[in-house]
Amino acid sequence: MDDPAAELAAYFQARTPVPDEELIRLTSAARAGGHSWASVAAACQIRRHRDTEGIVFGPGGRTPHTGAGLLYQATQGAVERVTGGRRYPPLAWQCADCGQLVSDRAGAGRPIHVEHGHADRCRRLRRDQAAHAARRCARVPALVASSEPRGGGFAAA
Amino acid sequence: MQRHRLSQRVVDDCPRCGWSGYFDEYLATIDGDWSSTVCDNCYADLHPSITVTVRFFSARSAGMREPFAAVRERSRSDHRYPDLGEQLAWRLSWEHTTVLAEEARGECGQDVTQIGQDDAERIAASLAGRYWPPDAAQLPWVQHAYPP
Protein backbone atom coordinates (compact mmCIF):
# COMPACT_ATOMS: atom_id res chain seq x y z
CA MET A 1 0.00 0.00 0.00
CA ASP A 2 1.62 3.26 -1.10
CA ASP A 3 -0.58 5.78 0.64
CA PRO A 4 0.34 6.03 4.34
CA ALA A 5 -3.05 7.54 5.16
CA ALA A 6 -4.79 4.54 3.60
CA GLU A 7 -2.40 2.23 5.42
CA LEU A 8 -3.26 3.87 8.74
CA ALA A 9 -6.96 3.83 7.86
CA ALA A 10 -6.75 0.07 7.44
CA TYR A 11 -5.90 -0.25 11.15
CA PHE A 12 -8.96 1.79 12.04
CA GLN A 13 -11.24 -0.12 9.68
CA ALA A 14 -10.07 -3.38 11.25
CA ARG A 15 -10.22 -1.86 14.76
CA THR A 16 -6.66 -3.10 15.27
CA PRO A 17 -4.29 -1.33 17.68
CA VAL A 18 -1.60 0.69 15.90
CA PRO A 19 1.89 0.23 17.37
CA ASP A 20 3.41 3.54 18.43
CA GLU A 21 6.29 3.30 15.95
CA GLU A 22 3.85 2.58 13.14
CA LEU A 23 1.60 5.49 14.07
CA ILE A 24 4.60 7.83 14.03
CA ARG A 25 5.90 6.46 10.74
CA LEU A 26 2.57 6.59 8.93
CA THR A 27 1.48 10.02 10.11
CA SER A 28 4.90 11.48 9.37
CA ALA A 29 4.88 9.92 5.89
CA ALA A 30 1.33 11.15 5.29
CA ARG A 31 2.27 14.71 6.27
CA ALA A 32 5.41 14.59 4.13
CA GLY A 33 3.30 13.25 1.27
CA GLY A 34 0.95 16.21 1.32
CA HIS A 35 -1.85 15.08 3.63
CA SER A 36 -3.18 17.35 6.36
CA TRP A 37 -3.94 15.96 9.80
CA ALA A 38 -7.60 16.52 8.96
CA SER A 39 -7.42 14.48 5.79
CA VAL A 40 -5.65 11.61 7.55
CA ALA A 41 -8.21 11.70 10.36
CA ALA A 42 -11.00 11.71 7.79
CA ALA A 43 -9.47 8.71 6.02
CA CYS A 44 -9.39 6.93 9.38
CA GLN A 45 -12.94 8.11 10.13
CA ILE A 46 -11.85 9.74 13.38
CA ARG A 47 -14.44 12.27 14.49
CA ARG A 48 -14.63 11.82 18.22
CA HIS A 49 -12.69 10.20 21.04
CA ARG A 50 -14.48 6.88 20.84
CA ASP A 51 -13.32 6.44 17.24
CA THR A 52 -9.77 6.08 18.58
CA GLU A 53 -10.49 3.79 21.53
CA GLY A 54 -8.53 0.55 21.42
CA ILE A 55 -6.66 1.63 18.27
CA VAL A 56 -4.39 4.45 19.34
CA PHE A 57 -3.48 5.31 22.88
CA GLY A 58 -4.82 8.07 24.98
CA PRO A 59 -5.47 11.35 23.20
CA GLY A 60 -6.76 13.76 25.82
CA GLY A 61 -6.36 17.27 27.14
CA ARG A 62 -8.46 20.38 27.50
CA THR A 63 -8.50 21.53 23.92
CA PRO A 64 -11.81 20.84 22.19
CA HIS A 65 -11.37 17.79 20.05
CA THR A 66 -11.56 17.45 16.32
CA GLY A 67 -10.56 14.33 14.42
CA ALA A 68 -7.32 16.03 13.43
CA GLY A 69 -6.65 17.10 17.00
CA LEU A 70 -7.26 13.61 18.35
CA LEU A 71 -4.90 12.02 15.83
CA TYR A 72 -2.27 14.69 16.45
CA GLN A 73 -2.43 14.18 20.21
CA ALA A 74 -2.31 10.39 19.89
CA THR A 75 0.79 10.68 17.71
CA GLN A 76 2.39 13.12 20.10
CA GLY A 77 1.83 10.61 22.91
CA ALA A 78 3.38 7.88 20.78
CA VAL A 79 6.50 9.98 20.16
CA GLU A 80 6.76 10.73 23.85
CA ARG A 81 6.61 7.01 24.71
CA VAL A 82 8.99 5.88 21.99
CA THR A 83 11.63 8.54 22.57
CA GLY A 84 11.22 8.75 26.33
CA GLY A 85 11.74 12.46 25.83
CA ARG A 86 9.90 15.51 26.95
CA ARG A 87 6.15 15.85 27.07
CA TYR A 88 4.40 17.28 24.05
CA PRO A 89 7.24 16.60 21.60
CA PRO A 90 7.11 18.28 18.20
CA LEU A 91 5.88 16.11 15.33
CA ALA A 92 8.35 16.55 12.53
CA TRP A 93 8.40 15.57 8.88
CA GLN A 94 10.54 16.34 5.88
CA CYS A 95 8.99 18.80 3.45
CA ALA A 96 9.43 17.52 -0.10
CA ASP A 97 9.26 21.03 -1.53
CA CYS A 98 11.74 22.97 0.61
CA GLY A 99 13.63 20.01 2.08
CA GLN A 100 13.36 21.37 5.62
CA LEU A 101 12.37 19.47 8.72
CA VAL A 102 8.94 20.85 9.59
CA SER A 103 7.34 20.68 13.03
CA ASP A 104 3.57 20.70 13.37
CA ARG A 105 2.53 22.78 16.35
CA ALA A 106 -1.08 21.59 16.21
CA GLY A 107 -3.30 19.25 14.27
CA ALA A 108 -5.38 22.07 12.85
CA GLY A 109 -5.05 25.74 12.10
CA ARG A 110 -3.65 27.96 9.40
CA PRO A 111 -0.62 26.25 7.88
CA ILE A 112 1.37 29.49 8.05
CA HIS A 113 0.75 29.47 11.80
CA VAL A 114 1.12 25.79 12.71
CA GLU A 115 3.79 24.39 10.34
CA HIS A 116 7.15 25.60 11.62
CA GLY A 117 10.48 25.22 9.88
CA HIS A 118 9.60 25.62 6.18
CA ALA A 119 12.05 27.55 4.05
CA ASP A 120 11.01 31.01 2.93
CA ARG A 121 8.90 30.82 -0.21
CA CYS A 122 8.17 27.10 0.25
CA ARG A 123 5.62 26.13 -2.40
CA ARG A 124 4.07 23.42 -0.25
CA LEU A 125 3.37 25.89 2.55
CA ARG A 126 1.88 28.42 0.14
CA ARG A 127 -0.24 25.74 -1.48
CA ASP A 128 -1.46 24.40 1.88
CA GLN A 129 -2.27 27.91 3.08
CA ALA A 130 -4.20 28.77 -0.07
CA ALA A 131 -6.21 25.56 0.18
CA HIS A 132 -6.93 26.21 3.84
CA ALA A 133 -8.11 29.75 3.09
CA ALA A 134 -10.37 28.50 0.30
CA ARG A 135 -11.92 25.89 2.62
CA ARG A 136 -12.56 28.55 5.26
CA CYS A 137 -14.21 30.86 2.74
CA ALA A 138 -16.56 28.03 1.77
CA ARG A 139 -17.23 26.74 5.29
CA VAL A 140 -17.32 29.69 7.69
CA PRO A 141 -20.15 31.75 6.12
CA ALA A 142 -22.40 28.71 6.46
CA LEU A 143 -21.88 28.82 10.24
CA VAL A 144 -23.38 32.31 10.50
CA ALA A 145 -26.95 32.77 11.68
CA SER A 146 -27.09 36.54 11.20
CA SER A 147 -24.82 39.48 10.57
CA GLU A 148 -24.63 42.99 11.95
CA PRO A 149 -24.40 45.81 9.45
CA ARG A 150 -20.87 47.02 8.99
CA GLY A 151 -20.08 49.53 11.68
CA GLY A 152 -22.71 48.59 14.29
CA GLY A 153 -26.32 47.73 14.97
CA PHE A 154 -27.76 44.30 14.38
CA ALA A 155 -29.82 42.92 11.56
CA ALA A 156 -30.87 39.55 10.20
CA ALA A 157 -28.58 38.15 7.52
CA MET B 1 -15.30 45.24 10.14
CA GLN B 2 -18.51 43.26 10.51
CA ARG B 3 -19.66 41.02 13.34
CA HIS B 4 -21.58 37.81 12.71
CA ARG B 5 -23.63 35.73 15.13
CA LEU B 6 -22.86 32.02 14.89
CA SER B 7 -25.60 29.43 14.61
CA GLN B 8 -23.61 27.25 17.01
CA ARG B 9 -20.34 27.55 18.87
CA VAL B 10 -17.33 26.43 16.90
CA VAL B 11 -13.70 25.60 17.60
CA ASP B 12 -11.38 27.97 15.79
CA ASP B 13 -8.27 30.12 16.04
CA CYS B 14 -8.06 33.90 15.92
CA PRO B 15 -5.22 34.95 13.63
CA ARG B 16 -5.00 38.36 15.28
CA CYS B 17 -4.71 37.60 19.00
CA GLY B 18 -3.88 33.88 18.89
CA TRP B 19 -6.94 32.71 20.80
CA SER B 20 -7.57 29.02 20.19
CA GLY B 21 -10.72 27.35 21.38
CA TYR B 22 -14.45 27.91 21.28
CA PHE B 23 -15.96 30.85 19.45
CA ASP B 24 -19.16 30.81 21.48
CA GLU B 25 -21.40 33.37 19.85
CA TYR B 26 -19.65 35.70 17.42
CA LEU B 27 -16.87 36.08 14.94
CA ALA B 28 -15.99 39.09 12.81
CA THR B 29 -14.74 39.68 9.31
CA ILE B 30 -12.39 42.49 8.35
CA ASP B 31 -12.87 43.81 4.82
CA GLY B 32 -15.15 40.84 4.11
CA ASP B 33 -12.29 38.35 4.40
CA TRP B 34 -13.73 35.01 5.53
CA SER B 35 -10.33 33.33 5.49
CA SER B 36 -9.11 35.40 8.45
CA THR B 37 -12.10 35.84 10.72
CA VAL B 38 -11.25 37.23 14.14
CA CYS B 39 -12.67 36.54 17.59
CA ASP B 40 -15.22 38.69 19.40
CA ASN B 41 -12.54 40.10 21.71
CA CYS B 42 -10.63 41.36 18.69
CA TYR B 43 -13.88 42.82 17.36
CA ALA B 44 -14.18 44.71 20.65
CA ASP B 45 -10.55 45.73 20.50
CA LEU B 46 -11.00 47.22 17.03
CA HIS B 47 -14.42 48.76 17.71
CA PRO B 48 -14.06 52.52 18.28
CA SER B 49 -16.68 52.68 21.03
CA ILE B 50 -15.47 49.70 23.08
CA THR B 51 -12.50 50.05 25.40
CA VAL B 52 -10.42 46.98 26.18
CA THR B 53 -7.84 46.87 28.95
CA VAL B 54 -5.51 43.95 29.56
CA ARG B 55 -3.57 42.71 32.56
CA PHE B 56 -0.76 40.19 32.34
CA PHE B 57 0.47 37.53 34.75
CA SER B 58 3.09 34.84 34.93
CA ALA B 59 2.20 31.34 36.08
CA ARG B 60 4.94 29.21 37.59
CA SER B 61 4.78 25.75 39.12
CA ALA B 62 5.92 25.43 42.70
CA GLY B 63 9.66 24.87 42.92
CA MET B 64 10.32 25.83 39.30
CA ARG B 65 12.39 28.84 38.31
CA GLU B 66 10.83 29.51 34.90
CA PRO B 67 7.14 30.31 34.35
CA PHE B 68 5.24 27.69 32.38
CA ALA B 69 2.83 30.25 30.95
CA ALA B 70 2.01 33.88 30.39
CA VAL B 71 -1.57 34.76 31.28
CA ARG B 72 -3.68 37.69 30.07
CA GLU B 73 -7.02 38.95 31.34
CA ARG B 74 -9.19 41.29 29.28
CA SER B 75 -11.73 43.78 30.58
CA ARG B 76 -14.17 45.17 28.02
CA SER B 77 -16.19 48.31 28.55
CA ASP B 78 -19.24 46.51 27.12
CA HIS B 79 -18.93 43.61 29.58
CA ARG B 80 -19.54 43.82 33.31
CA TYR B 81 -16.72 41.47 34.35
CA PRO B 82 -13.24 40.66 33.05
CA ASP B 83 -12.86 37.41 31.13
CA LEU B 84 -11.69 34.23 32.86
CA GLY B 85 -8.20 34.64 31.49
CA GLU B 86 -6.15 33.03 28.75
CA GLN B 87 -2.76 31.41 28.99
CA LEU B 88 -0.01 30.91 26.48
CA ALA B 89 2.04 27.86 27.39
CA TRP B 90 4.19 25.38 25.41
CA ARG B 91 1.51 25.04 22.73
CA LEU B 92 1.92 28.72 21.80
CA SER B 93 -1.79 29.38 21.51
CA TRP B 94 -3.78 31.53 23.91
CA GLU B 95 -6.21 29.13 25.57
CA HIS B 96 -8.62 29.23 28.48
CA THR B 97 -7.09 28.88 31.89
CA THR B 98 -8.59 28.70 35.34
CA VAL B 99 -5.50 29.90 37.21
CA LEU B 100 -6.80 33.43 37.75
CA ALA B 101 -10.10 32.18 39.16
CA GLU B 102 -8.23 29.71 41.38
CA GLU B 103 -5.87 32.45 42.49
CA ALA B 104 -8.81 34.71 43.37
CA ARG B 105 -10.23 31.93 45.53
CA GLY B 106 -6.87 31.26 47.15
CA GLU B 107 -6.89 27.75 45.70
CA CYS B 108 -4.23 28.06 43.04
CA GLY B 109 -1.41 25.54 43.14
CA GLN B 110 0.77 27.74 40.95
CA ASP B 111 2.60 30.95 41.67
CA VAL B 112 0.65 33.64 39.81
CA THR B 113 2.22 37.11 39.66
CA GLN B 114 1.06 40.21 37.84
CA ILE B 115 3.63 41.33 35.29
CA GLY B 116 3.90 43.81 32.44
CA GLN B 117 3.34 43.10 28.77
CA ASP B 118 7.12 43.11 28.15
CA ASP B 119 7.57 40.35 30.70
CA ALA B 120 4.69 38.36 29.17
CA GLU B 121 6.40 38.65 25.79
CA ARG B 122 9.69 37.48 27.26
CA ILE B 123 7.92 34.38 28.63
CA ALA B 124 6.30 33.76 25.25
CA ALA B 125 9.63 34.08 23.43
CA SER B 126 11.26 31.74 25.91
CA LEU B 127 8.54 29.11 25.43
CA ALA B 128 8.84 29.42 21.65
CA GLY B 129 12.61 29.00 21.82
CA ARG B 130 12.39 26.05 24.17
CA TYR B 131 9.81 24.03 22.27
CA TRP B 132 9.70 25.05 18.60
CA PRO B 133 11.76 25.98 15.53
CA PRO B 134 12.89 29.63 15.38
CA ASP B 135 10.05 30.85 13.15
CA ALA B 136 7.51 30.06 15.88
CA ALA B 137 8.80 33.09 17.77
CA GLN B 138 7.57 35.20 14.85
CA LEU B 139 3.90 34.32 15.45
CA PRO B 140 2.11 37.65 15.94
CA TRP B 141 0.64 36.66 19.31
CA VAL B 142 4.01 35.41 20.55
CA GLN B 143 5.76 38.62 19.56
CA HIS B 144 2.93 40.71 21.01
CA ALA B 145 1.16 39.27 24.04
CA TYR B 146 -1.68 41.56 23.04
CA PRO B 147 -2.23 42.86 19.50
CA PRO B 148 -0.65 46.29 19.01
Protein model, in words:
The complex is a heterodimer of chains A (157) and B (148). The model of chain A has no long low-confidence stretch (mean pLDDT 89). Chain A is 43% helix and 9% strand. Chain A contains six helices and four strands, in the order ααααββαβαβ. In chain A, a hairpin with a 6-residue loop joins β1 (91-94) and β2. Chain A has a domain at 4-89. The relative contact order of chain A is 0.11. By secondary structure, chain A is mainly α. The model of chain B has no long low-confidence stretch (mean pLDDT 94). Chain B contains four helices and ten strands; from the N terminus they run βββββαββββαβαα. Chain B is globular, with a radius of gyration of 15 Å. In chain B, β4 (26-30) and β5 form a beta hairpin. Chain B has one domain (2-143). Chain B is 22% helix and 36% strand. With 148 residues, chain B is an alpha+beta fold. In chain B, strands 9-8-7-6-10 form a five-stranded antiparallel beta sheet. In chain B, strands 1-4-5 form a three-stranded antiparallel beta sheet. In chain B, strands 2-3 form a two-stranded antiparallel sheet.
Number of separate strands of chain B: 10
Structural class of chain B: alpha+beta
Rg calc of chain A: 18 Å
Largest sheet of chain B: 5 strands, antiparallel
The helix fraction of chain B, in percent, is 10-25%
Mean pLDDT of chain B: 94
Number of strands of chain A: 4
Shape of chain A: globular
> What is the string of helix and strand elements of chain A?
HHHHEEHEHE
What is the gist of this entry?
The complex is a heterodimer of chains A (157) and B (148). Chain A has 157 residues and is mainly alpha-helical. Chain A has a domain at 4-89.
Annotate the secondary structure layout:
The complex is a heterodimer of chains A (157) and B (148).
Chain A: H1 4-13, H2 20-32, H3 37-43, H4 67-83, E1 91-94, E2 101-104, H5 111-114, E3 115-116, H6 123-139, E4 144-147
Chain B: E1 2-6, E2 10-13, E3 20-23, E4 26-30, E5 33-38, H1 40-46, E6 52-61, E7 69-76, E8 86-88, E9 94-96, H2 99-104, E10 110-115, H3 117-131, H4 140-143
Antiparallel strand pairs in B: 1-4, 2-3, 4-5, 6-7, 6-10, 7-8, 8-9
